[in-house]
Design goal:
Layout lengths: L1 E7 L4 H11 L5 E8 L5 H8 L4 E3 L7 H14 L4 E4 L8 H6 L4 E5 L11 H8 L3 E8 L9 E8 L6 H24 L3 E4 L2 E4 L2
Parallel strand pairs: 1-2, 1-4, 2-3, 4-5
Antiparallel strand pairs: 5-6, 6-7, 8-9
Helix pairs in contact: 1-6
Bound molecules: 5-O-phosphono-beta-D-ribofuranosylamine (GRF).
The site of 5-O-phosphono-beta-D-ribofuranosylamine (GRF) has 15 residues, from helix 1, strand 5 and helix 6.
Length: 200
């Protein structure tokens, strides 16, 4: 059984989708620890209510390398196999990425490589694309630039504002993230360069 860490800074709806998928027996993994850089993250309460171990590692004013080092220390101590970023609002540096090579996943609310970084839904609306969506990818040393595991598209409607588009994308995120984690923990995929291909 693979051991997951979830890193979050906010409401934690993707964390809940992952935890639900495990509970329903659809994902052969266990959540070892839920970590946040913010003590006030609502996702932490949701994790506690599910009886999961939580950890706050405050990031405010902490230099990136020092922060990465504390995070690596804690995750290694919990013998974590896979790190799932789920709305974790702190960029991780090379020290962290190299400690878990191809073992860190992120979910991003756009069809990468379009609209990386913050406010992707607003970027999509302002650009005028007719489709957007979400991407689950492996984390490399860039921002939202690692190999793509899964993507899902949704239409952008004329009547959309940031909120309605974000909600449509979020529904897909909750379906996609557990599915992508499943592909990794079952060993169904391998990397060819930056392409993720099926083993069987
Ligand atoms: C999601 O939109 C995700 O794509 C982005 O941050 C948001 C997290 O939402 N990385 P939640 O905390 O999982 O509800």
């Amino acid at each position: 059984m693979k051991r997951l860490a979830i890193l979050l800074s906010g409401r934690g709806s993707n964390f809940e989708a992952i935890a639900d998928s495990i509970k329903r027996g659809r994902l052969p993994a266990r959540i070892e620890v839920v970590v946040s850089n913010l003590a006030s993250a609502p996702g932490l309460d949701k994790a506690r209510r599910r009886g999961l171990k939580t950890l706050v590692i405050p990031s405010r004013g902490v230099p990136r390398e020092d922060y990465d080092r504390s995070l690596v220390y804690e995750l290694k101590r919990h013998r974590v196999d896979l790190v799932c970023l789920a709305g974790f609002m702190r960029i991780l540096g090379p020290l962290f990425v190299r400690a878990f090579p191809n073992r860190i996943l992120n979910i991003h609310p756009s069809l990468l490589p379009a609209f990386p970084g913050l406010n992707s839904q607003r970027q999509a609306l302002e650009y005028g694309v007719q489709f957007s969506g979400c991407t689950v990818h492996l984390v490399d040393e860039g921002v939202d630039s690692g190999p793509i595991l899964l993507q899902a598209a949704v239409p952008v409607l004329e009547s959309d504002d940031e909120e309605s588009l974000a909600a449509r994308i979020l529904a897909e995120e909750h379906r996609l993230y557990p599915q992508a984690i499943g592909m990794l923990v079952r060993g169904e995929v391998r990397l060819e360069g930056r392409r993720v291909v099926r083993r069987f």
